[in-house]
Design a protein that fits this description.
The chain is of the alpha+beta class. Helix content is 41%, strand content 17%. The strands form three sheets. A five-stranded mixed sheet has the order 3-4-2-1-11, with helices on one face. The chain has a four-stranded antiparallel sheet with strand order 5-8-10-9. The longest helix has 21 residues. The protein starts with a helix and ends with a strand.
Length: 371
Amino acid sequence: MNRSEFLRISGVTIVVASAGTYLLSDKTNFLRSDFEDDSIVNFSFQPGEKEILYLASLAPSGHNTQPWLVHYIEPYHWIIGNDKSKWLPAVDPSQRETVLSIGAFIQNLEFAANYTGYTCEFKLLAATNQDTDLLEVRLQKTAGVPNYDTQKLLKRRTVRSGYLTATLKKEDSAYLLSGENDYTHFIPNGSKEYKWLNEQTIEANRIQAYRNAAQQELSEWIRFSSREAEKHCDGLTTAGMELDGIAGWYLRNFYKQKDVMKNKFREQGIDKVKKQVSQSAGWLIITSKDNSVETLIETGKRFERIFLKVRDRNVAIHPMTQILEEGKTQKQVSASIGLSDEIQFILRLGYLKNYPDPVTLRRPVNLFVIT
């Protein structure tokens, strides 16, 4: 066998071996639509209950931790709780963001209950963000309840990239913020405050990426492989992080939790943030009068009400609250953008050419309902 023939055969062998490796690899992103809930619950739901609770669980949360817990007291009578195993102590040590997320869950629950002909009666139980039980809710069958369109819940999605830089139209801003004007503040692109928020968002992400406790916490919630995604039904999947094609395939098959701690991964994350903040119509700030549990729940509900409207106008929302999570940047934010109220959300907004379907996973209802 001469040298050229040897190289030709070796090349074919490598290609065949690579093809075999690819066929055995994790080839596609695991999406919400791929999941089949064949779980078995240890009690029977009454009509509409499981659907309402699932629709409620489509609310957003930091790192997609899904920090809600539902204590099933009796039919249509539940306690909405705070799952401590889903807390993010490195970036949310006071559980402020956790309670905001549960507020979004409660808003979804109320809309889903309305869709099935129920109204909700809520009673606040918690005095602090760390209390296990937050709210008691009773559902009452009521005639003439507004029939909320649950497709808005099913289609809601956080979109991170691909924003256009067109300014938000006045009619779209009026639609999105209708009824919420007292605690919402839109900062259009090109303004001084917009530029400051762009710069400080990059800086806060840089600080957080190199704060090992925060980066380690992030690594624990990334589900690189489809097997991990299907096992946990939560966290940040490659699809949710909008990593498709070759990049997504490579991460699913070759990246592990320890790789998140490497400088290369940290720098790639910072570079992605730089690109993201360069593309938007502006920033939406949501404030509140204080940081009480009741106020945080109401603010989380307000956030979700806005979020459920944006798809109607082909507008995307990307929560980027790292400025509020890092002490160095958090101290400056209120004064720099001229707000005196408590800032609870910093949201990047922008138009999209095409709105993608939701892909982030959700845990089956029986995994967050206890008796």
